[in-house]
Structure formats: C-alpha cells, structure tokens
Amino acid sequence: MNSFTIGSIASGMGMHLWGLIEIGGVPSWAIECDERIAEVYKRNHPTSLMLCNRAETISPNDVSDIDCLIATPSCKNASLLRGAGLQEQSEDISLATATANFIKAKRPKLFLLENVWQYRCFQSFHIIANTLRELGYFFAFWRLNCASFGVAQSRFRLYAVGVRGENSVDLSLIPQFQSKGWLEAIADIIPILPETTLAPWQKQKFPQLPYACLLKRAGGGRKSDRPYLSNEPSFTIRALGKNCARHWHQADIKIGENIYPLTPRAALRLFGDTKTSDRIWLPENNCLAMECVGNGASWVICKVLAQAVFAL
Fold it and tell me: Of 116, 251, 279, 285, whose CB count within 10 A is highest?
C-alpha cells in the first residue's frame, strides 16, 4: 500500500495512529488541547506537528493537506456511565463544527471518527455526518466491539467512515477475528508487575475466586461486577480522571494466591497486538498514563477500516 498522510483532531496520545502507520500512514499533524497529553503524543510521534490548543482556535490553513483525517473527540455526556438524558455541551458542538471545517478545507480521501455509541444521537455527530454527505462523501457508521477484531478487551464503540466519492465500505467484507483472553495478552509481563492485595470490598463480594481472573477495582463495586476468566476479553478499560491519585489501579489480576494491579502498560496490551503496544511510550506518572490509555482508540480497528478504504 502506498504511503498516506494523516491529520488528527482531539488526538490524545495518538494510540489509534499506530495501526495506520503499519499500513503506510504518516502522521503529519495533530491537535490536542491537553498539554500533558500533547507531550505524550510528541514522544510517540516526534516527526508530526503537534498543535496544543482547541481545534476551534486553529485555521485549516495553518496545517498541510492530508489523505486521512481522524477525529476522536471527547464527549463526556455521551458516555452511558454518566446517565441517560444528559445533553451535549457547547464545546462539543464547537469542536464538531471545527472538525467539519477541516473536512471542508482539506477534503481528505478518508475520514475516520471514533467515540462512544451514544455520540451518534448528538448534534455534534450530525454536524460532521451532514458535512460529509453534503460534500459527496460516502458515509456510514457501525457499533463495533474490539473483541471481534482479536483484541483482548470487550470495548463497544462508534466507528464512522467517510470516503470521498462514490465508493462504499461493506462491513460484511471486513475481516474479523477470534476474540482473545486477557491473560494471553499480558501473561509474559505478569512476573514483573508489583504485587498488591484485594480491597476489602472485593474480598467481601468475592469470597471464592477461580485460580486466574481479572477483577474491577477503581470504578468497581457495582452489581454487574464479576470475575473475568482468563480466556475472556477484559471489561472496558476507561479513563477515570487523571486527577484521582488511584484511578490508574482500576483492575486486579489474580493468579493463584498472588494479586497484581493492572498497570497502564498491562492495560495497553488490552488494546491491540503485543508488538505495537510495547512500542508505545507511556509516562512514568501512572495516573496520566492510564488517562492516555483509557481514552485511547484501538489501532487495530482503525487499521482494518483504513485498509478497506484504501483497497477500493
């Protein structure tokens, strides 16, 4: 596949770009408003221009034309974890409007969007979708689970694709893969993880546990919590807030009598293949590292969707 250039809006640390890089993608520029996360992006993609600001403040004329534009905007009220009936915020709409303006100005061959599934119900999503359709793009979106693509995490997300011209993407032709258990993804690094103990509420709720399992910790305590067996994908790894001192410790690994915390590095293994995850630089600050990881989009699905488009 020939090389293609990439622009990224609300880029985070650029986790999603690694799958595109594998098939010839070259990150040209990225926009991220959080300074600390922007620094993580720069460590991972040092040849890419990083503009640390909100996309609304940046003119499309200030960045180069690109073949692929990818947006992964934060939309807190779209998350089901925040309850039903919450409305999007003004900054969500302004970011979507800015994204639409970049699409109009740059006319990339491929546009990719990743977000929580509820985002499709918001005006922000429709601003982007209507812009693509008005410009003559093929546009489609799906609810995809990372576990269906060989990733060791059950993570349902909205993925949308815009393709310039009359081409269409038939998801039925996109290969999917057998799911992977969480233990297979991290088994080799368990011996180097620090040891811990279960929290009192975990011990009370789960007095008997299988030999090997994964348990929620931070953000846990709900009725739906359960042990995840070693051959199952993990539950969804998410960002719980970089200002919470212990939010990075959101899961515990039990192997026999030993308990280990799911570190940010181990959690990253649950977003894609081992070779790629081990290439990604993470900061020493565990809370910042887990914020970057938990807000990330799996590079595997981005790679599969881009391959389908560029093969047209």
Answer: 251
Report pLDDT digits (tens) over 92-103.
999 999 999 999
Instruction: State which amino acid sits at residue 46.
Output: P
Q: How many whole angstroms separate alpha carbon 16 and alpha carbon 26? A: 12
Question: Comparing C-alpha atoms, which of 18, 103, 13, 115 is closest to residue 66?
Answer: 103
Cβ(148)–Cβ(176) under 8 Å?
yes
Are 28 and 48 contacting, i.e. CB atoms less than 8 angstroms apart?
yes
Quote the distance between the C-alpha of residue 50 and its chain's center.
19
**Dihedral pair phi/psi, residue 143, rounded to 5°:** -100, 110
Tally of residues, the chain:
312
The model's pTM is 0.93
* Residue 184: φ, ψ to 5°: -60, -35
Residue 245 pLDDT exceeds 50? yes
Nearest to 156 by CA among 170, 167, 145: 145
Q: What are phi and psi of 74, to 5 degrees?
A: -80, 135
| Domain spans of the chain, in order of start | 4-177+273-310, 182-271
Tokens at residue 61, please?
Answer: 């004329």
Percentage of the chain lying above the pLDDT 70 cut: 91
Angle at the Cα of 263 (from 257 to 267), degrees rounded to 5? Answer: 105
Going by their DSSP bridges, the two strands 137-145 and 212-216 should be labelled as: unpaired
Nearest to 56 by CA among 121, 124, 118: 124
φ/ψ of 164, rounded to 5, equals -65, 130
- For residue 284, what is the DSSP state? S
Q: Where is 172: in which H helix or E strand?
A: none
